[in-house]
Every structure is written in structure tokens, then in C-alpha cells.
Amino acid sequence: MGDKELILDGSEAPIKVEAEALLASEKLVPVAVLNKIRVPYQPVDVQLKTLSTGRDRLLSGKQILALTLTYKFKLEDAAEVKPYIPLLNNRIYDTKFESQFYMISDANKRVYAMGDVYPESSKLPKGEYKLQLYLRHENVQLLEKLKQLTVFIERNMGEIRLNLHSEPDGPVTGNGVFKSSVLMPGVKEAFYLGPPTKDKLPKNTPQGSVLVGEISYGKLSFDDKEGKNPKDNPVFYPISFVVPPKKPDEDKKAVSSTNSCKSVSERLEQEVRDTKIKFLGNLKQETEEERSEWKKLCACLKSEYPSNTPLLAKILEGLLSLSEGGDKISHHEEIIDAANEVVRSVDVDELARFLLDKSEPEDEEAENLKKKMEMTRDQLAEALYQKGLAMARIENLKGEKEDEGDEGSCQKDKFEENFKELTKWVLEELIQNENQTANKKLYELKLGLLEELGEEMKNMYTAMIRVPYQPVDAQLKTLSTGRDRLLSGKQILALTLTYKFKLEDAAEVKPYIPLLNNRIYDTKFESQFYMISDANKRVYAMGDVYPESSKLPKGEYKVQLYLRHENVQLLEKLKQLTVFIERNMGEVRLNLHSEPDGPVTGNGALKSSVLMPGVKEAFYVGPPTKDKLPKNTPQGSVLVGEISYGKLSFDDKEGKNPKDNPAFYPISYVVPPNKPEEDKKAVSSTNSCKSVSERLEQEVRDTKIKFLGNLKQETEEERSEWKKLCACLKSEYPSYTPLLAKILEGLLSRSEGGDKISHHEEIIDAANEVVRSVDVDELARFLLDKSEPEDEEAEGEKEDEGSCQKDKFEENFKELTKWVDVKSSKFGTLTVLREKRLSRLGSALKVLEELIQNENQTANKKLYELKLGLLEELGWSHLATYEKQWMQVRFPTSLPLF
Fold it and tell me: pTM score, two decimals?
């Protein structure tokens, strides 16, 4: 191998790797995996000082100096992290710095980890952290150069497998997939290591982060693991990938079904209102001018939406975020007034009636109403709570005496009245379950210390998630009378249940049916089979009573479950049978307590105990905290794992994994409903120079365009409403490119309908409007001209008869080549059609083959149909016949029967 360490620079270009066998023929089986991420940080604070003259002076008389660098980082979830400093780590005798130490602490100054030149991994809970790096040297110039030293925070991530190709354009074209080869002695063979695709990169990964992993080039001949993990193979080498800049994806959530009964104008008005409230919450109030602008906007929105509870709650939230300033009493009185407005905006009678009704919501609309009412209750409770705190603080500030007058009695009565109202809506727990960085105010109220006894014995974690699904279709039918009739004369019936699920990423999944799986002789059902297929009816997996895991790519899938029985009543009961789709997830460790209230109060943390013979001892397993649950986990999903109660005395793994211990038992946790978190991104710094009104207008405009993109066009009425809104927005923002592009996108998403020519003319008009709205001269100054010169054959073709329409097509195509790669998967179909129009059928077929091979998800039927048409037009009947046969395999008209 030429280079032992391979570094991908973040571009689309692959790395060329040359392999050579020196003595005998060898099998080359390369495997490359990325499994860790390193995020770079710059210091937020730098301190350089001279140390004490006594102990820190060298024999030569030079004084030692110390540089302390402070870094801050945030963990969205608990993780095992390790600081990594490429310049300094793992070097002692060949470094210029006599000592280096680091310390990781949280916001409460609690130290979680310390280390030196050889950093080690440390498990940290979710929260904000500070890393302090301490360096010593006698040369002040050397330390000055390190004031901007980059530190990486390394943590594990999901496995990303890299593609290998036999040609350098492979990562772009998708051609030449390389799997294995036999090396002959003395003959070099090259392959190309491609970068990971953008969709496989971890979400919210900052630019400049580094994904690291390993690559191996061969495997043991007797290894039954297929060499899929490079570390299992004889030799492996490090690889890394630098994360490039990434364009944030636009939120494309569909319009809620609860709004389906409202008109388009009502739904748009609601979206605009929510955007204004969100914008208000993102405004800063650091300076007097910003606070003045905030108050003006509050008054404006209150006059526009006088009794909107979320708006009034947002205003209260803004007041609470302000520092008390000079006149503390006035500040708390403002809070009381804002809280009173929130309370008055709530219909407490309606809210009470709803909360007293304990029935479960039957549909999505009822579920959304429940969430809305629960949010209103929370806002009401928060307002009463903050009002009570403000009243108590005003009393303290006024310095009440025991013999207070009438005004003091009145104030106390108001406080008691407010407190009684608050108790109607919330429980009176004092300390919540704090599993993030500790809350100092709560712990100042605690008394005593937690007892710790003996060795660590108990351990548990969950590592798998099961998501439940209900059938979208159920078909019960009587089977043929011949082979499906019992000797008693009873007829066997078959129930086919259909489930649909979606994978956002490729995953290894397994259907799990608690009622039926792993049971043969003690079940009432003589047979059960399942089949997993994609949107093209391609079958990926089949199984029976013992389901097995199957690897599925990203996409939408259908599970069909087939059950047989002679009793129709039994099968009728199974028409709503729940099926779980099981897949792996990150490890979630559970807390143990010595008292039942431990998960709520945080008291009685239990680590270990010594059991005496014949004496029982109880402990309590707490549920995982909400922040540890996998994101977007549906209500009713089940996290499963193991628990163990002891470890081997000679085991050096500390028994952290229950499966490493002598015995382990299954545990599970059912996910409760989860309140969606509000997006609280700060206002972009690019808008900081604009006024509040300009920024608000921009937010409203973007909301309207997003709303337009979410509108459905399935019926004639919906299409009419969509066109009206398009006309309205075009008159409001006539030359705004994102709006015109969204209108074009809406036209493209619509089916052609009856008059196909009119439909395509509409698309051309919309595309022309987009083109006219762009200042191409300004755009060209920032972009490279990617167009290639037309060849002579193309120029000749353009001068043929009827060239008017053809010239327009060529002009449009030439303009497109300036801005994009016209052979990419998104625009390649147009290139194929162009080559076909120019009668270059062979060239069209070549481009089409590249597009087909570049499809890494479920196959695109339109591309294959286009290929079949080209083969028939070329007169290659034998290949066309072959392709037709394969079309039946790739895109079956129906699923196979059970």
C-alpha cells in the first residue's frame, strides 16, 4: 500500500489507493468504515502568566510561563467524549512543552475529567461544558503562537461505510463498483476510495469536523464475519473525512390535518401569526434600544391578537429573561401584569372540562387538541407560578414587618389566592428528576449525603428500539375449498394484514409480533408468514414464526402478515394486531435508587450493596429521562435491553455491559407522549443590520412561501385555491426568486391531467419567470461557468428545418449547463432527452446507464422505461427483450402470493 493513512478532503474526489502483492497472489478485499466524529473548537478565553519565581525558574535563570486556554462545548445528548489535540497528544520526549494538562467541568464547576498528554474518554451527561488546557514553557513566543490552538472533541457516531470504485469518476457517476480482486505478484492494482454521501453525514455536523475510521485490505480465510469490520481483519489503517459546508435543509412538513377544515386564507393567517410570535421570542433584549424595540413589537402584536394565549405567554417569557435592573419592584409588577393577561386569556372552565375527560384521543385531530389543551394548561400554570414568585419577591423587597398594615394583609391574601389557583393545575413536587448537569439551587435544599457501599454490582441499559404499527389494511377471505378444508369439514380462512413504515436511513430491521413469534406448538394459528417489500413491490425479506433481521435501504416499506385459521371470530379479533419494527439504537443507561421516589426527588442513588445470606434487599429501576430517548420516537415505542446483578471478580471490563456478566435478564420501557420542542434558533447574524420591522417582514414572507409549498393540489378545488394564492403572492413579491421557484416546483409536482400541452406550457412560463428574476451577471461573478463548448455535430443539428423549437430547447439547455452538472442524477434525464433529439441514441444510452447505476435507493422505473425505448429505437431487439424480462423482476405488477 502506498499510504497507510488516507484523508478525504471533503470534496467529491476519491483517493487513489494502489495495492501490490510482493511474493504470492493475494486476495484484495478492501473495507472502509467511518465511526467517530471530531468537532473542532477555538478557545473562548486565553490567559498567559508568569509562574512563581521560586519553583518555576530553570537552572539557567529562565522563568517558566503558563498558558491556560478555555474552550466551551455543548452536548445535546449524553456521550462518551475525548479531547484530541493533534499537535500535542501522545508526545513526550519529542515535544517542546514540558507539561500539558486538561480539565473538563460543567456549569456548576463540577470536574468530570482530567488528563494529560494521553487523553482518555469520559462519559458526560447532556449539558454545557468547559475544557481548560494548561501548557508550560519558558519561551513566551512559543506560547503566544498557541493562543488559537484548535482542540477536537471526539465522540462515537453511527457506522458509515464508504464506497469503493474501479475508476476515478465512480463517486460521481456511480460506475465501476469495486468489491474484490486477486493481486498477482509484482503487479500493482488501483482502486478509488469515495467520500461519504451528504445524506449519510451526522445531522448538524459543523463545517470542519472530521469523521475518522479504519480501512482494511484483506481478511482471514477462516473468518466467518465476512470482514465487514476493518478492526476484525489482520491489519487496518486510519482514514478520515473533513466535513464540508452544508446547506441547511428546508423544513417541508405537510400542513396539519387539523387545518383541513379551514380555508387557505385562514390557515395562512394562522401560519403568519405563529411566525410573528416565534420572531418575538427570538428578539434580543441586551441593550436599552433592543428592549424598546421589543416592547413596541409586543404592543403591536397584542393589538393585533389581543387574547392569544401563546403570544401573551411569550411576552411573559421575554420579561422573565430580562435582568431585574434598577427598579426591581417595577420589574416584578410588570411580570405580574403579564401573568394576569395570560390567566385572563384562558377559558378555565373549558380547560377544566377537557382535563377531567380521561378518554384517549381517537384520531389525529383529537390528539392535536389534547396537546393544545395541555400546552394551555402549562402556560396557565407557568403564569400563576411566576406571578406568585414575583409577589413574594415584592414582599421581600418592601421589607414587611410582623405588624404589617392593611396593604401587607391585602398583598398576602393575593399571594394565597394565587397559590390556591396554581394548586388546581399542577402537583406540588419540589424537586424534579435532574439527570443533566446538577441544579445547584435544588441541591442547596437537600440534607445529608448519599451512602455508597461495596463494589459495583448492578448494571442495566437499553440498546434496541421497537416502534409499533397498526395495520393500514386488513383482508379476510375464505381459501379454496379443496386443499384448505379440514377433515371435520371446516373451511380454513386467511387474514392478510398490511403495515407501512418508513426508514429515514438504511437500517437493520426485524418485525416483532409478541402475540405470535417464537410459538409453534402452543399457538392457535397453524401458520404465519410475513413479507417486506418496497414501493416498487420488490421483496426484501420473508419469514415466519421466527423472524430474522434484514438490512433495508432508506425508503418506504410495506409489511404483509399472513395468518390462517378455521375460526372467523379469532381472525376478526386480529384485524388490529400490532406489529413492532425493531432496530438498534444508542445505549441508554438507567438509574438505580434505594427508594421509590428516587426518580422524582433525585435522592437515594444506589450503586452497589453487599447481600447477606437469606436477607432480601430491594432497589428501584428508574426510567430513562426524556433527553435520553431517541429523537422523533413515536408514542408507544418500546426500548429494550438487559439488566445484570453481578460481575465476574476477575473481569477487567467493570461489568459495564450486562451481556459481559454471568447472567442478564431482559428489561423494557414504553415511550410516553412527548411534547415537541419549539425551535428557538437565534435570529441570523446576517439580519443584525436590519430593523425589527424589516426582519419581521422577511420572516412573514418566508412563512407564506413555505405555506404555499405545503398546499395540496389533489382536487380541482385545491388547485384553484393554489393558483389564487400564487397570484396573490406574485403581486405582493413580484420578482422574488424563491417564490417563483416554489410555484414552478408546485407545477412540477402536479399530474399532467387531460391537456398535457397546456400543462407543459405553464411549466415553461413559470420557468421563464424564475430565469427573469435572477440577475445572471451578478450570479456569474460568483460562480464558475461550467458550460462546455458545443461540438460541430450539435451545431449542425441546430441548423436543420423546424429549428425554431429546437433552438429554444438548445438555448435553454446551454443556459442550464452554466450552473449545474447536466449529467447528475437530478438533471441527467434532460441530457438523455437532448441526445435523443439530436439522434445520438448511443450517447443517450450511455448517459442513461450512468444514471441507472447511480441509483442507490429503490430503483427508478421511469429511467428503465426510457432505456427500453432507446433499445427498441436502436433496433436492438435481443437486448430489448432481455430488458423487458428484467423489468418484470425489478418492478413486479403485484406482490407474490403467500
Answer: 0.39
